[in-house]
Amino acid sequence: MRRWRSCLIWLIIAGSAAALFLAWQYAGFRVARRTLPAGMSMAGLPVEGMTREQALNALELAFATPVEVTYLDQRFILPPESVAFHYDVEQTAANLEQILKERAGLSGFIAYVLRRPEEKIVVPVAASYSAQRLDDFLARVATQYDRPPRPLVPLPTSLTFRAAGPGTRLDREISRARLAAALLSAAERRVALAVHTEPPPPHSLDALELMLKVILEKHPGLVAGIFVKDLQNGDELGINADIAYSGMSVLKIAIIADVYRVLEMPLTPEVSAWISQTIGATDSNAAANLLLGKVLGNGDGYQGAENLSASLRYLGLVNTFIAAPY
Fold this sequence. Notes:
The chain has 326 residues and is an alpha+beta fold. It has eleven helices and 14 strands. The protein has a three-stranded mixed sheet. 16% of the residues are buried.
């Protein structure tokens, strides 16, 4: 009987201690429930340790902050009201209360007593915006900042070219998703828009042709014949390229080149004098004829002209010839 009483007393003591412990823990649990639990976030904003009112006010303040937007190195803002952004405080508060109510029951108290690690809790936030207005904003940004690739531009006055440059194009799909996420976030209010860089167009002879035509327009009395070939890609440019021109003094260069080809060095003083007179200040046709006849034609100026034309054909200049001496 004594042993039974002793056991009963100890059971009463243990039960009382357990009851006191649980009462103490429950009081702490009630106090802890006054603030939001660890691991809780709302629209990306950590709200642990805040009261309900503080969390809701923090959200309202964050959603009123304009979104900072960058298009490459250009910076501007997107005010939430410009896209009809709406934050429903009452619905968000109801969502928060529902989650807190679920965690305030017996399972929540047991987790508090056992000091179980808090799981991450994401509270749904009731917020919306106008998709059409957001698309309109992106359209305005694209109109203002998108640039097509810049081609090579001739600058005839300085005989130079303005370098070609890349273009930029806004990727609206990716940028729309990024802006939407920022509008609905209370933590990250900065967005770098997705912009594609488009390479400049490849160089062509069009810019050179335009420059040459502008230069020729300033000399209305000049009929120019120009042919250019890009040896890397085979592109050709021709201005009056199919018109036959009288070479006249230009052919004197070919005469002198052929003289150097057929004669051994050093040249005689007489031949050197004829060369100087042919392309010097006198621009002498008579001296050119002496080179044609005495050097290239073995005494016959017409034979010299024929021999020179043959040399030009050998070099590939099939449309360049001299029919007779000057």
